[in-house]
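Researcher: If convenient, please comment on what follows.
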Amino acid sequence: MGAMRRVMLVASTAATAVVLSAGSGVGSGIGAGSGVDAAPGAVEADVAHHGDVSLWGGRLAVRLHTGNHGPSDLVGATARLGFSVPVVPARKLPDACLWGGNQVVYCQSGALRADGRDSEFLLDLRAVGDPAEVSVDIATVWNGGADDRNPDNDKHHVLVPATGDLYVY
């Protein structure tokens, strides 16, 4: 796979999915040698997602920025993007993203420094048909077991009418 990370999808009973990168220390919570305690809840970090979404003629463009407002660094985080309509899964995704079905995409950030915006993903997708609007739900499904005392900035619901305008979240 070259520089691509091998990724596996693990679904929990709550229908939440987590993307883990095999062999990178991500699956174990925090990477060895990171200087961060790997015990769940021992690290405090604030994962946040921001970006924009646009829809026109069935084409769906999503820009996802994932950052960490600290106070601790993280090995990475995984965002789930859920769409209210089926999306054509044959479209190429960025290397750190994968399909979780015809209405879900998961994207895994790299290391997230405290107080930094470290990952950006650009998704060029096509909806099945030509919907008048699409809802997009964005949320963190994995943050290395960190204690996030401000989880509201990593959960967004965006209604995107098919106007071609950017809807910012």
In short: The chain has one domain: 7-31+44-168.
